Amino acid sequence: MKIVIPGGTGQVGTILRRALSAASHEVVVLTRRPVRDGEVQWDGVTRGPWTAAVDGSDVVINLAGRSVSCRYTPANLQAMMDSRVDSARVVGEAIAAAARPPRVWLQMSTATVYAHRFDAPNDEARGVVGGSEPGVPGYWAYSVEIAKAWERAQEQAETPGTRKVALRSAMVMSPDRGGVFDVLLRLARLGLGGPVAGGAQYLSWIHDLDFVRAVEFLVERSDLSGPVNLAAPAPLPQRAFMRELRAAWGVPVGLPATKWMAELGAFAMRSDTELLLKSRRVVPGRLLDAGFAFDHGEWRGAADDLVRRVRGARAGS
Ligand SMILES: NC(=O)c1ccc[n+]([C@@H]2O[C@H](COP(=O)([O-])OP(=O)(O)OC[C@H]3O[C@@H](n4cnc5c(N)ncnc54)[C@H](OP(=O)(O)O)[C@@H]3O)[C@@H](O)[C@H]2O)c1
Where is the DUF1731 domain (predicted)? Predict the structure, then answer.
């Protein structure tokens, strides 16, 4: 297949590009700064010569968006919103104008669309969309607004010949440097991988190879469209998540951190505590109903596998 990946130069794009190229697909990445073979320039806002790559393709997987690992200043929040809505809109325009549109458009979304909650898991049918939870910082609602506007941009695109799926993905755990697993593992190895603010908040995750398999599944399953959760079936509280990660690497202790320590740490890392403190309890209702089977459904086994691959890569280099 010819697969076009707008925003495919980042963490998730690296995972998909590696796997889909290895499976002998032709992969074209749209990026603002092309440097490698198979990369085509676009700006994520306006139509241009890049739309020729979409016309005649089989699949489009749009991942573009300003990184969420930043301070949530008004300017950064606006850039997070605009880069997602604009890129989804213009991808939709390119598909709508194509003489031979792709058969499926997978649009990245996020598990962050669901409410901060502890009491029950969120699947697509019964899950609670966030934005009005009591007792959480007001700006958390904006992340939900971004997710909703992002999905709306895809829904509103008039692409009758193309099936549309919104990927409500949890954190994708891969052994690559700079990814979320790398950051969490580094903290654990420094002895800082303990509970944050009590650690009761749920952490939803998906192993990189299951993420790729779920994407392939959604490409093939022409009966599935709309929002789909991409998350392992067993999200767990942050303190248990970090305990399993420490055990997988062999780190005996993880210092607990209070909310204020987390604020300081996030400030030092130019990141935001919402990523640490929001309870994301998301489960893959539709994938499981459709018969998708996870290879890495439990965190301990997934963490062991990721640690083994990290160690293998380091030994190799
Ligand atoms: N990583 C996860 O675990 C995870 C989980 C759920 C959802 N997501 C979402 O999935 C998407 C991909 O995640 P990722 O971790 O691969 O993100 P990433 O590493 O930050 O990569 C996103 C890509 O978007 C492009 N981009 C950034 N700002 C842009 C802008 N203003 N206009 C157009 N393109 C822009 C960049 O490509 P160029 O600089 O090459 O143009 C970048 O490589 C993101 O939207 C993220 O929010 C990620």
Answer: 270-306
**Least confidently predicted of 10-19, 117-126, 135-144:** 135-144
Mutation choice for ligand 1 from 5, 9, 17, 142, CB with most ligand atoms inside 8 A: 9
Kind plus residue range of the DSSP H or E element containing 228: strand 226-230
Nearest CA to ligand 1 atom 7: 110
- Could you give the number of structural domains in the chain? 1
Model pLDDT for residues 165-201, shown as the tens digit of each residue: 999 999 999 999 999 999 999 999 999 899 999 999 9
| Model pTM score | 0.97
- Taking the centre of ligand 1 as the mean of its atom positions, its distance from the CA of residue 64, in whole angstroms, is 5
Q: Is 7 in the pocket of ligand 1 (CB under 6 A)?
A: yes
Q: List the one residue out of 103, 190, 155, 147 whose CA is nearest residue 280.
A: 147
Q: What's the domain range around 149?
A: 2-316
pLDDT at 272: 86
The Cα–Cα gap between 85 and 72 comes to: 18
Q: Ligand 1: does its nearest atom lie under 6 Å from the Cβ of 174?
A: no
Q: Residue 302 in contact with residue 309, Cβ under 8 Å?
A: no
Measuring from atom 18 of ligand 1, which residue has the nearest CA?
10
Establish whether residue 64 lines the binding site of ligand 1, counting it when its CB lies within 6 angstroms of any ligand atom: yes
Nearest CA among 302, 272, 303, 11 for reference residue 143: 272
CATH code where residue 99 lies: 3.40.50.720
Per-residue pLDDT band for 133 (boundaries 50, 70, 90) equals very high
Average per-residue pLDDT for the chain: 96
Determine if ligand 1 sits within 6 Å of the CB of residue 8. no
Whether the pLDDT of residue 317 is over 80: the answer is: no
